Amino acid sequence: MQIDFTGRTVLVTGSTLGIGLATAEGFARAGARTVLNGRDETRLKAAAESIRAKVPGADLVTVAADVSTAEGAATLLEAVPAVDVLVNNTGIFASTPVLEISDEEWRRFFEVNVLSGVRLARQYLPGMMARGFGRVVFVSSETAIDTPLDMVHYGVTKTALLAIASGLAKAAAGTGVTVNSVLPGPTHTEGIEEYVTALIPEAESFDAAQREFIARFRPTSLLQRLIEPSEVANLILFTSSELAPATTGAALKVEGGTLTSLVP
Ligand SMILES: NC(=O)c1ccc[n+]([C@@H]2O[C@H](COP(=O)([O-])OP(=O)(O)OC[C@H]3O[C@@H](n4cnc5c(N)ncnc54)[C@H](OP(=O)(O)O)[C@@H]3O)[C@@H](O)[C@H]2O)c1
């Protein structure tokens, strides 16, 4: 199976770190003109350099823009008027008891995790439909299905993404454009390293901490370790490729088997 994005422009939001960076690297490796995004020029430059070190000659564009705002979305549109693939990856998480989450915090989570992708889809989908090809992927989470007690607001935003992807897929029916969501489980990113280390400070090494974390907090994991960002990226690349026109409106699990429900 050859996955080739030569001639395609791909935007991955929140791609200076973690899953977004691994996804951008995957697209660059597969020949795409890849647009990296984050809020900070220095982190963007470092991300682009890290990809170029692994993928010599990678065709990269960097756009500093805060996608949680309408201004940020407009900045992206001005810099990159059309894309073939939009990966709405940007997302934040925080551990807060549900009864202590303020209105302001609920709104912030919706702006960053939900409206960011809605705005960009509104900007780029019509062009994709007119050209007869396009892919939109929302990076959701296993918490879309299994609401975490300590991150209810996060889980709610991730559940919303499943419905948004399904609705947008219906809006794009018959046009050659697909819209899907992917549901990663706990993934080995910098943020999760900090989260796991704080939860299990007594562990002797990070490897011991992550295994303890999975055993205590994700006991249903069939993978029994954190997922590597590239393992999430691989599913995003396949779903975004020309090989996957029949996968649309779907919620695709890449959570190491932690969700025990048979669907989605
Ligand atoms: N890590 C996990 O275990 C896990 C599990 C399930 C789902 N997910 C989901 O996967 C996605 C990526 O998570 P991650 O852990 O890889 O993220 P991460 O390592 O925390 O990186 C977040 C990225 O988003 C960027 N960012 C944050 N706010 C932004 C904004 N307002 N505008 C533009 N960029 C912004 C950050 O760049 P700057 O700071 O440079 O702006 C960074 O590149 C998220 O949607 C998350 O919910 C993660």
- Average pLDDT: 97
What is the C-alpha radius of gyration, as a whole number of Å?
Answer: 18 Å
Helix amount, in percent? Answer: 40-55%
The span between the termini is 25 Å
Sketch the topology as an H/E string, one letter per element.
Answer: EHEHEHEHEHEHHHE
- Strand numbers in spatial order across the main sheet: 3-2-1-4-5-6-7
Task: Estimate what percentage of residues fall within beta strands.
Answer: 5-15%
Largest beta sheet, briefly? 7 strands, parallel
Count of the domains: 2
Explain this structure.
This protein is globular. The protein is α/β, with parallel strands linked by helices. A 7-stranded parallel β-sheet has the order 3-2-1-4-5-6-7, with helices on both faces. The two termini are 25 Å apart. 45% of the residues lie in helices and 14% in strands. The chain has 2 domains: 9-187 and 229-254, NAD(P)-binding Rossmann-like Domain (Rossmann fold, 3-Layer(aba) Sandwich); 189-226, no CATH class. Helix 1 packs across helix 8, helix 4 runs parallel beside helix 5 (152-171) and helix 6 (190-199) packs across helix 7. The chain has helices at 18-29, 41-54, 70-79, 103-131, 152-171, 190-199, 206-217, 229-240; strands spanning 9-12, 33-38, 60-64, 85-88, 134-139, 177-184, 251-254. Helix 1 links the parallel strand 1 (9-12) and strand 2 (33-38). It has 8 helices and 7 strands; from the N terminus they run βαβαβαβαβαβαααβ. The mean pLDDT is 97. Bound molecules: NADP nicotinamide-adenine-dinucleotide phosphate. NADP nicotinamide-adenine-dinucleotide phosphate binds at residues 13-20, 37-40, 43, 66-68, 89-93, 112, 139, 141, 184, 186-187, 189-192. This is Putative short-chain dehydrogenase. GO terms for molecular function: oxidoreductase activity. Belongs to the short-chain dehydrogenases/reductases (SDR) family. Residues 8-189 form the Ketoreductase domain. Pfam families: adh_short.
